[in-house]
Amino acid sequence: MELSAAVALETNALPAAFNGDPFDRTVAATARVLGLVPITTDARLRDHAGLVAVEYYPFKPGRRSG
Questions:
Q1: pLDDT of the chain along its 66 residues, tens only?
Q2: What does the alpha-carbon distance between residue 10 and residue 33 come to, in Å, rounded to a whole number?
């Protein structure tokens, strides 16, 4: 997926209190611009769900049998 000008501008429009990680900001901005719902195990992104709808997936690593 290409980084559009709209997404780049939206990363700067996020509040200063939003997680400073550039990738998280880009994920949130992309979701806002495109109307998407990210699915993540990242609690930091989930904690800012008021800015973007986030579906939290509580992934528990483990081994598959078989």
A1: 778 999 999 999 988 888 778 888 898 899 889 888 877 777 777 777 566 566 666 666 666 655
A2: 7
Task: Return the structure tokens found at 55.
Answer: 């579906």
DSSP string, 7-36: HHHHHHHS-TTS---HHHHHHHHHHHHHT-
For residues 43 and 49, the answer to whether their CB atoms sit within 8 Å is no
- Give the predicted TM-score (pTM) of the model: 0.70
Distance CA 66, CA 44 (A): 34
Do the beta carbons of residue 38 and residue 45 sit within 8 Å? yes
Q: What are the boundaries of each domain within the chain?
A: 5-56
